[in-house]
Amino acid sequence: MAETDFVLRYEKGNFKSGFCILNSKKIAIINKYFTHEGKINCLIDIVKSIDVDTEKLSSKNQSLFLELSQTDIEF
């Protein structure tokens, strides 16, 4: 999330969805005890739920953002 205003942190927590977004502080927190797959799924959910100024993203990250925001996760 280096090209956005958000900070990504991995911490312990009892988040129902596996992550927590503090919009007022622009912090996204993912449960650090999740598996790698769980963390990736949380990142995709976070990308879909935050407002990102795509103009600030590099062209490579713009296409990745577009792809991730259209991805449906199947469990």
Kindly describe this structure.
Helices cover 33% and strands 19% of the residues. The chain has one domain (7-69). The chain is of the alpha+beta class and 75 residues long. Strand 2 (19-22) and strand 3 (27-31) form a beta hairpin. The radius of gyration is 12 Å and the shape is globular. A three-stranded mixed beta sheet has the order 1-3-2, with helices on one face.
Query: Which segments are poorly predicted (pLDDT under 50) over 5 or more consecutive residues?
Result: none
Would you report the number of β strands?
3
Question: Helix-strand pattern, N to C?
Answer: EEEHH
Structural class: alpha+beta
Helix content bin = 25-40%
Rg result? 12 Å
Q: Taking all residues together, what is the mean pLDDT?
A: 84
Count helical runs: 2
- Assembly state (oligomeric): single chain
CA-based shape: globular
- Give the strand line-up of the largest sheet: 1-3-2
How many structurally independent domains? 1
Largest sheet, strands/sense/barrel: 3 strands, mixed
Distance between the termini: 25 Å
Beta fraction: 15-25%
Q: Descriptors for this entry?
A:
single chain; 75 residues; alpha+beta; three-stranded mixed sheet; 3 strands; 33% helix; globular
Q: What is the topological layout?
A:
Elements: E1 7-11, E2 19-22, E3 27-31, H1 36-49, H2 59-69
Parallel strand pairs: 1-3
Antiparallel strand pairs: 2-3
